[in-house]
């Protein structure tokens, strides 16, 4: 059931095919270089792109812009404590700010950090501290067609062997990302959270949950994990985080805001170190690089995101897109993720091997076909990792309706019909940091890209 209606609207335009071709060329065949004006349905990310509720907009006016100790910080801190169960919190400008603050306080050169699967900024921040980020996904998570309820789980056997090989003293932190963005937005079970917490305790490592999409994860747990069949989403949300020593959060996802993030932890010493780093990199620890009004919006958003009507509508919206793609015969990662549907570009374009970046070709073709912007999360975004060639269609929260979803499905289906003619791509130039190359690299298709779209 649609759990809201529009009150403010933003006009959209669909550029004609010639404009799309020119815009994509000018962007170096990298959709991060496109102007938003030239995009009709923008599924680049679910991060900070959603619509706030009228209560959030109203709360902005309560923003207390005092430099230190604002009332807005108090309301924000209470929301984090009530919804997520952490009393000590440091706001940051967004999730990667939280990663910088926390990892700088925890890691040293030569350390090893296991994660069910690092997101790109998380990997880059671990590496930036001189530590080695190691992914421990389940084999089933890397199989787009395999049916399993919790494909985002940490592979606990692999985690143990990573800890044993490195030596526990070299593993100061173990991170669990819920839902698992790099593994198709798949959920993590509470049972898995408990097992990872046990390994962290044995290794005396800080157990960190990357909680960006904690409410979507909780909703999946409620639907799929027997023990929680009758539990409220809000209860599950707290239960899953109760095992963590610290969390990093991007408010731009499950705090339903356009900016903001935070790090929260239980240990007082760690909290003090985080506050010091926050002063250096973010701002005084009661505002962390945000305006008081941004803290207010996060405080309201955190309470809204665990309401069942919100999160049910959210997962249904994503599944509506997934079902349409499956019906059109498009190979899609299943089950569908919480924030996105991931198309399996490897199966979509079997004539293109990894070096031809099939995911990036598909992203470009979707733009040319229907002015739809998606993002590649395969061998282009994650070089040197062994993972499926995925293209993510991430739905902003509370923004697009069924007509947009249908347009996206028609666009991808039209590219699928002419898939044999889709060419591969070459990277023409790339920036020095390999973990971040997909944001700025320029590419070119090996042959002219398909016909201009009519969708
Ligand atoms: N962790 C995860 C799992 C994320 O998905 C992201 C951001 C971050 C950390 C960093 O948060 O953007 O607020 O600094 N993911 C966005 C995406 C950008 O498109 O998936 P941030």
Total count of strands: 14
**Number of helical regions:** 16
Small-molecule binders here are: ligand F0G
Question: What kind of sheet is the major sheet?
Answer: 5 strands, mixed
What does the overall shape look like? globular
Class from secondary-structure proportions? alpha/beta
- The percentage helix is 40-55%
Order of helices and strands: HEHHEHEHEHEHEHHEEHHHEHHEEEHEHE
Main-sheet strand order equals 2-8-7-6-5
From the N-terminal CA to the C-terminal CA, the straight-line distance is: 28 Å
Task: Indicate the radius of gyration in whole angstroms.
Answer: 21 Å
Instruction: Report the average pLDDT across residues.
Output: 96
Q: Hey, roughly how much beta strand do the residues contain?
A: 5-15%
Question: Which stretches of 5+ consecutive residues score pLDDT under 50?
Answer: none
Explain what the structure shows.
There is one protein chain. The chain is of the alpha/beta class and 455 residues long. The model has no long low-confidence stretch (mean pLDDT 96). The strands form five sheets. A five-stranded mixed beta sheet has the order 2-8-7-6-5, with helices on both faces. It has a three-stranded antiparallel beta sheet with strand order 9-12-11. It has a two-stranded parallel sheet with strand order 1-10. The chain has helices at 17-26, 54-60, 71-84, 95-106, 120-128, 156-166, 190-203, 214-224, 233-241, 268-281, 292-305, 308-327, 345-348, 358-370, 402-417, 437-440; strands spanning 41-42, 88-92, 112-115, 132-135, 173-177, 206-210, 246-250, 261-265, 340-344, 372-373, 375-376, 390-394, 425-429, 442-445.
């Amino acid at each position: 059931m649609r759990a809201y209606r529009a009150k403010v609207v933003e006009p959209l335009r669909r550029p004609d095919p010639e404009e799309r071709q020119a815009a994509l060329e000018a962007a170096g065949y990298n959709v991060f270089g496109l102007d938003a004006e030239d995009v009709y349905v923008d599924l680049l990310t679910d991060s900070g792109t959603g619509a706030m509720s009228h209560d959030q907009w109203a709360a902005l006016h309560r923003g207390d812009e005092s430099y230190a100790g604002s009332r807005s910080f108090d309301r924000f801190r209470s929301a984090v404590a009530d919804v997520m169960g952490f009393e000590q919190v440091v706001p940051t400008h967004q999730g990667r700010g939280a990663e910088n603050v926390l990892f700088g306080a925890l890691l040293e050169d030569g350390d090893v950090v296991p994660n069910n699967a690092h997101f790109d900024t998380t990997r880059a921040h671990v590496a930036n501290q001189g530590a080695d980020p190691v992914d421990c996904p389940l084999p089933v998570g890397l199989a787009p067609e395999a049916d399993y309820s919790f494909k985002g789980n940490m592979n606990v056997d692999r985690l143990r062997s990573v800890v044993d090989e490195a030596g526990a003293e070299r593993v100061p932190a173990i991170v669990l990302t819920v839902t698992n963005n790099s593994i198709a937005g798949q959920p993590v079970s509470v049972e898995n959270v408990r097992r990872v917490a046990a390994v962290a305790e044995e290794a005396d490592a800080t157990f960190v949950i990357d909680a960006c999409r904690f409410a979507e994860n909780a909703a999946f747990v409620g639907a799929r994990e027997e023990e929680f069949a009758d539990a409220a989403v809000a209860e599950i949300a707290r239960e899953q985080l109760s095992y963590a020593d610290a969390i990093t959060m991007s408010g731009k996802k499950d705090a339903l805001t356009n900016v903001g993030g935070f790090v929260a932890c239980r240990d007082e010493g760690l909290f003090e170190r985080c506050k010091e780093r926050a002063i250096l990199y973010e701002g005084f620890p009661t505002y962390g690089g945000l305006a008081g009004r941004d803290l207010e919006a996060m405080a309201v958003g955190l309470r809204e995101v665990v309401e069942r009507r919100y999160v049910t509508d959210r997962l249904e919206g994503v599944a509506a897109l997934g079902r349409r793609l499956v019906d059109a015969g498009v190979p899609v990662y299943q089950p569908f993720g919480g924030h996105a549907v991931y198309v399996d570009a490897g199966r979509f374009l079997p004539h293109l091997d990894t070096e031809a970046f099939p995911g990036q070709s598909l992203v470009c073709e979707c733009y040319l076909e229907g002015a739809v912007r998606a993002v590649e999360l395969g061998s282009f975004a994650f070089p040197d990792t062994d993972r499926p060639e995925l293209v993510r269609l991430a739905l902003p929260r509370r923004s697009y309706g069924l007509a947009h979803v249908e347009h996206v499905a028609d666009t991808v289906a039209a590219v699928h019909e002419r898939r044999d003619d889709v060419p591969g791509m070459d990277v023409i130039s790339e920036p020095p940091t390999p973990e971040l190359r997909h944001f700025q690299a320029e590419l070119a298709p090996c042959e002219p890209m398909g016909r201009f779209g009519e969708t």
